[in-house]
Amino acid sequence: MKLIKVKNGLLEAENYFLASSFSDFAGSANITRDISSGKLKLISNNKIERKFEYKEFVIELEKENFKTMDIDDYSMIYLGNKDYSFGIKDTKADTQNKFWKILKQDNYIQAYSSKDGDAYINIGGMEFSDSLTKQGFTKSNTDDFILNNYKVYASPYVTLQNAPEGFIVEFYNSKDEIVVTRKFNAEMECKVFLDAKIQGYFIFKDLDNKEYYKSELLELGYGDAYVLSPYNFEIIYLGNVINNIDSALLQDLEELITIKNIGNKDYMNINIGTQSNGNDLIQLSLDNVTYTDNIALDIAQGTQKEIFVRIIKNADNHSFNVRDFQLIVNE
Questions:
Q1: I need a surface site. Which of 69, 113, 201, 289 has the fewest CB within 10 A?
Q2: Are residues 62 and 116 in the same domain?
Q3: Three-class SS state of 55
Q4: CB neighbours of 84 closer than 8 A, spacing ≥ 6?
């Protein structure tokens, strides 16, 4: 038995403002970007704005604070559509925050700010059921607005799957302090809300409140999904074992991954499929010729099987979801 990370919570594999064409967001703004450092600078006192149509998400970013701010100066992240605009705004030099976070879940928007990226303060929220179409940054200051990091995640939760209904999971931080307790539902799933990305571990308890399984220390991120798997498999990609600390995003639309049985039993007629939040076609093959949605294979203990993955991007999908999917393994 092993708790396996099966999904990275990132909705976008790269920083949109570094990976996209200037024409997708810059407008008339004077900007520079450095791919090696990951920094983007808004030099002029206007805005950069991108198309943004996610229904649920977490945006987390790190920026540089201005050295000084006059009475009308500000920096701001905003979201909205043609009728509404809202976001987080710094207006005073001594109350600036380097980290901003905005999430939308169940038609509710929440905004957070932080000095260090660990301890976030909730600075407000509101119900918002309308569709979003845009997200941007704007500023007024003699300093450049410097965006150090920008990531978009699927949700503020870590999802745990495949424990029986009624089982309890206790979530502990790296100091062995209990953070929260949750119960698995009829779908054999539970969700743990993250205030920030954090190191921690899970203890699963059965219906008699006896310890059933304890995970290793994990690096937990927004939107990640884990499965309590009866299979003792390793997933290998580009020669590296994909683990619960550093998950992988495929580098191309046609790739090769390896599944290795590191357990003490043979697995026969294992069914391998995929699941994705996007609408791209993801298919698998054992010979790189015949591709199907699912494949079946036998994996004896100590052996491994190579699986070819092919992703056909949907013409209507303009997001960065192309390489974001999870493997589904069943007998």
A1: 289
A2: yes
A3: coil
A4: 128, 130
DSSP H helical ranges for 4-118? 16-19
57 and 144 together in one domain = yes
| C-beta atoms surrounding 55 within 10 Å | 9
Are both 261 and 177 inside the same structural domain? no
Range of the domain at 313: 234-331
Q: Of 200, 110, 185, 121, which is closest to residue 155 (Cα–Cα)?
A: 110
Mean pLDDT of the region 112-124: 95
pLDDT in tens, 57-94: 999 999 999 999 999 999 999 999 999 999 999 999 99
Distance CA 152, CA 102 (A): 10
CA 65 to chain centre: 25
Using one digit for the tens of pLDDT, what is the confidence trace for 146-173? 999 999 999 999 999 999 999 999 999 9
Quote the pTM value.
Answer: 0.80
Q: Mark whether 166 and 257 lie in a shared domain.
A: no
C-alpha 271, offset from chain centre: 26
CA 92/CA 145 separation, integer angstroms: 15
Q: What is the pLDDT of residues 199-222, one digit of tens each?
A: 999 999 999 999 999 999 999 999
**Phi-psi group of 276: left, alpha or beta (phi > 0 → left; psi -120 to 50 → alpha; rest → beta):** beta
**Chain-centroid distance, C-alpha 191:** 14
Question: CA-to-CA distance for 102 and 60, rounded, in angstroms?
Answer: 7
Task: List the CATH number of the domain containing 28.
Answer: 2.60.120.200
293 or 61: which leads in pLDDT:
61
